[in-house]
């Protein structure tokens, strides 16, 4: 017998998943304790569904059936159930079979699979999710193929199998459709899986941000407290749905003009979203009431969870388990709230009082309520609106990844701004951010460099510089402060992307123009000589100069600098109108304004409401290349044109520079790079070798011997130059004779390895005498042969010494790194990184992104080295660690890159049993 508490129970197969409609379910192994649940589930399935499952009328399960479907060995016979609460909504099982179709055990690698989904839950993607998870389980147990028999009339189930993306065969035999699925993941199956993930997670967020009805639980009768504040904000913000207040002690029909109820169960209508604002100890009761009422999602404002210590962290984990058990999703706890400015929704379920943000094109996500307040205030002061806002607090469930999934397809959002303290799963985040950044900018300010209290997502061992590199690889615009987050967001939301780095500067102050010029150079832009209009310049002068700059083919962007007029007679609104008109007449290039101590001008540049910071709100026009033009409305040629204004040149230039770099990334990544195929790779041989090496390793991480490491790398076309041990001088001479002179003599002791600066390497030893003399010098200077562990190695062509590494981070997955060898590069941290699997474009960019890259391309008259060979080495190593998650660390040092070819002189390889779940595994919500 196997129960959930049995040591043989595979707890790592348990997973929470988001279904097609945005609800959640839990997938887990079926145990002997599930007999009653299975019978109850089967009773709720229609006769038609039972007929499709058993190919005959089958009104009820016999005792023998129940025993068979609840007793599994979790190797040859496995059953999984999808549950909501404690009830089954779907089941799947496989039975291993032999070539004759009869039950079998390993090494048989085929299994028969069958599903049954409750009729009320069909169409929600339950079967697709179960197929992903049973497929992962089968692969773990050595099963490579599924066989299924389906009645031709059961079109829904046939579609589940045919849409999954696996390689498959289909035939018609004896009145049924026979399907055989190869369970090896393919590019198509992974694409299908991720597309389903995107749609489901986006839908789950959409249900939170666009509810038809909202109940606020915990509204005080006195009108004080956060619950009452949220209720007022919902009411005053113009929420378009039904609004309810819940307070167990209420004695009137209304609270603050809103229908009030003593309990959620007293509401006789559906409730889509519940905002919970009760003390933490009362939250479980409120969640249970929501689950029983069929609420779709929760925003929990209550504090006292992970941010308050170990006990609060346990309370937070239990909260997530309870919420998901009812198929709901959760924003929070300790959340600030959510806002959706869509006129048909009008949702302000947050602590942000009136005036709430107006409709705009920026989506904003924060983990911190305090930072959320700061960002909302900054955008409001500068006249910018929002499409949506989510402040997730401890983000125990809904995270920035979910919000990115939503924004990716949200036509109301042009720019995504995110304040993050941790990335949680950097590999998934960068994958989602790369896809989103291909269609709209993603700007991230990352706060904490360590995991703060309350955020129970797994931390990462990656240094912050590496995280930044991975974000840049994904096209994310990384900024350092919330001020820069707003500055960059304003420019991207209102201006087209620049076509290049050429910047025109014009204004009425020579000094401010020079400051702007210097700032452009510091940001890597190519500014033209500033055009000084002099302090006597009129609005018409600005109009003509800006129009000419925008009309010139020599400029990609324009920065206008303005200081006060000496006579202060020029009306500031005239200048604002002149700038708008010039932009309207020459659309397609970004413009930013730098002002100094001009509060009146800022007011004049404001939209009609008098909110400072932008010229005028308008919908942003854009084309497929990210370029867009200003459009005019009634009221003048420039009416509707928006131009962001900045109080310092450095801030405006930084925003323009980030737009330039993002535009360059968009153009470079218009076509996805390819992961190359190499015909000489022996993937099966490498898998067999790793299986043998790890057969008795348990959970230990093994460092392979030089011979094993070289053999494994050779299977992927990476040759490591051999060495021969030299415990004595005579051994060194014999080794040199076997290899042929000239040779190198090196120490391999850990404290001297790869430290040529300490004198542990002797090169170009052309004779026996040279070798004996060097051997004596080494042992006299650094220690005995037993301490130094000297080896002899053949000489290779001179070149540039480099280091290639791959490490496995627990959150980010496999990361490929490259830099030049030597203390100087290590001291400066001059190392570049890319996520695995790396494409050809990734490899080329990797070697060019370090500061010392010119040494590879003929610096100061030296010969350029063979960078194509280096790129191939990187790609082959990427394939190795991507194909075999058992490889947890590889260091190739040094890799000598010559003018033709390269040589790997030393390799260290670490291996371990792979984790049960990988990024290629089935869809699952994080479980902390």
Helical content, roughly?
Answer: 25-40%
**Biggest sheet layout:** 8 strands, mixed
Q: Return the structural class.
A: alpha/beta
**What integer is the average pLDDT?**
88
CA gyration radius, whole angstroms: 32 Å
Give the N-terminus to C-terminus distance in angstroms: 29 Å
Determine the strand fraction and express it as a percent band.
15-25%
- Count of extended strands: 39
How would you summarize the topology of this molecule?
Layout: E1 15-18, E2 24-29, H1 35-43, H2 47-54, H3 63-70, E3 77-84, E4 87-97, E5 110-117, H4 126-140, E6 145-150, H5 155-162, E7 168-173, E8 176-182, H6 187-209, E9 213-217, H7 225-236, E10 242-246, E11 254-255, E12 258-261, E13 273-276, H8 283-293, E14 297-300, H9 310-325, E15 329-331, E16 337-340, E17 347-350, E18 359-366, H10 369-381, E19 386-391, H11 400-409, E20 415-420, H12 426-437, E21 442-446, H13 464-473, E22 477-479, H14 482-494, E23 502-507, H15 510-522, E24 526-527, E25 531-532, H16 539-551, E26 557-562, H17 572-585, E27 591-595, H18 599-604, E28 645-646, H19 649-668, H20 683-693, E29 702-703, H21 706-714, E30 723-725, H22 729-739, E31 743-747, E32 761-765, H23 768-782, H24 785-788, E33 790-794, E34 800-809, E35 813-820, H25 823-828, E36 831-835, H26 840-848, H27 867-883, E37 887-897, E38 902-904, E39 907-911
Parallel strand pairs: 5-6, 9-10, 9-13, 10-12, 13-14, 14-15, 18-19, 18-20, 20-21, 21-22, 23-24, 23-25, 23-26, 26-27, 27-28
Antiparallel strand pairs: 1-2, 2-3, 3-4, 4-5, 6-8, 7-8, 11-12, 16-17, 16-19, 29-39, 30-33, 31-32, 31-33, 34-35, 34-37, 35-36, 37-38, 37-39
